[in-house]
């Protein structure tokens, strides 16, 4: 099964996730979404699987806190897509997408064990 990890190459959580995958021999492809920004359609798909754009975004991030208040309340899907294309680092990471449609965000040892059926 193919697994794609979307994140930022300098993100500590993404590094922990990829080290975990390496340790357990789980093959994956890593996509840095600052360099290879997700398409608007992909963002909509992720938001749908995450439970909405609010759930997709890390609102405790420095980037979010530095946004002007007017940008923190997108009123439409189009505004969310624009915001996340402009600031992909707002997406809570890592985003894990498997070819069977499985989607998850974030990293924890137990969460990955369950997701990948390890241990």
Automatic annotation (TrEMBL):
<dbReference type="InterPro" id="IPR006660">
    <property type="entry name" value="Arsenate_reductase-like"/>
</dbReference>
<comment type="similarity">
    <text>Belongs to the ArsC family.</text>
</comment>
<dbReference type="InterPro" id="IPR036249">
    <property type="entry name" value="Thioredoxin-like_sf"/>
</dbReference>
<protein>
    <submittedName>
        <fullName>Arsenate reductase</fullName>
    </submittedName>
</protein>
<dbReference type="InterPro" id="IPR006504">
    <property type="entry name" value="Tscrpt_reg_Spx/MgsR"/>
</dbReference>
<dbReference type="Pfam" id="PF03960">
    <property type="entry name" value="ArsC"/>
</dbReference>
